[in-house]
């Protein structure tokens, strides 16, 4: 009830929730009380969570914040959210996000921008919370839920985490089931938590993760007790610092933050080693081919027949066209066009196939570093702190917006786990985050290392 009251009081300001489910929340809370009284409390018993609108929730608003899914209420529950409910968590409602998770500022949502709870010192300008999981990050930062689910295809957990001073982890590809999560780019998409601290993120990921017969890319490996890793020594650990992440024009503050992070990890007993990930500079262009390609294929299903919006036309082809023209926003249309182009005969070899080859090289860069004895890699999470809503510069040039993902997309391309952890404030008093990248299925290493930084 306290969280529902907080949402009622503050959501108008932040626009983090696009649907609140008070009856469901109170009902689930009552069930939790009973389970607790009966001595059968789950790991998340009674914990109120916000759910990104990308997760299918039974009979509850699920629209990936797109107009084209208007009125869609699935008759099924995503595996990740079902896992959370099985452990006793309580649903508060659905959270705002960029349309179909395409964006880095939450401004592509059909439901409007989300306001970052943080403001620069002495300024009243409204800032973005990052994206695409902007609603999740803002709701956690503003205490409108205890933690939230999110997804990360190219940084959408880690970048909003960094912009709001929260902790976000994208687990290894395959750690969480993708079943029931609206697909953006299926070979990159992973669910993960955004939480207020490393411990909460560790507890929540443990509940979210599972193998699932309904997603053959989910992996049948035991899910460790991530919380148990917190407080473990970093002695003997080797942390790699990739020189390619020192990008041109990186602000001094980010550089300083990175050095500070290195110093903290050294103090905690880790050995710092310089490493090279030579194909890093190709990650962003390759990502912006692979992700739109997969998106154009995944989004073909929204045709006005099966889901949501239908705009009638003179025949079925006309109905498809009118529905898709009215239902998708500008950024989604841009991605569908790029994706269709790079997959089309004559261009497939030049773009898509080439991008897949680059992806293999990016993955190999990481493998070589890990094979040489590096346990985790430390980088900044984002090239800047949160920027303003409706930034003219970014609005005029979508490629500039894509540059936000420069430190995060390599992790998705290689399928690795990555965590963003708050590491300090910039001169404006805004949060900045550091990122740790780990070996496949070694999320524990990330949690224990991030715990030293937070
Ligand atoms: N900003 C990236 C994009 O727009 C990442 C999105 C995501 O991780 N869902 O594609």
From TrEMBL:
One of its GO terms (cellular component) is glutamyl-tRNA(Gln) amidotransferase complex. Transmembrane segments: none annotated. Keywords: ATP-binding, Ligase, Nucleotide-binding, Protein biosynthesis, Transferase. GO terms for molecular function: ATP binding; glutaminyl-tRNA synthase (glutamine-hydrolyzing) activity; transferase activity. Gene3D superfamilies: Amidase signature (AS) domain. The keyword Amino-acid biosynthesis does not apply. Residues 1-446 form the Amidase domain. One of its GO terms (biological process) is translation. Its EC number is 6.3.5.7. It is an enzyme of class 6 (ligase). It holds the Pfam family Amidase. It catalyses: L-glutamyl-tRNA(Gln) + L-glutamine + ATP + H2O = L-glutaminyl-tRNA(Gln) + L-glutamate + ADP + phosphate + H(+). The active site is at residues 52, 132, 156. Hydrolyzes indole-3-acetamide (IAM) into indole-3-acetic acid (IAA). Allows the formation of correctly charged Gln-tRNA(Gln) through the transamidation of misacylated Glu-tRNA(Gln) in organisms which lack glutaminyl-tRNA synthetase. The reaction takes place in the presence of glutamine and ATP through an activated gamma-phospho-Glu-tRNA(Gln). HAMAP family: GatA. Belongs to the amidase family. GatA subfamily. Heterotrimer of A, B and C subunits. This is Glutamyl-tRNA(Gln) amidotransferase subunit A. It comes from Rhizobium deserti. The gene is gatA.
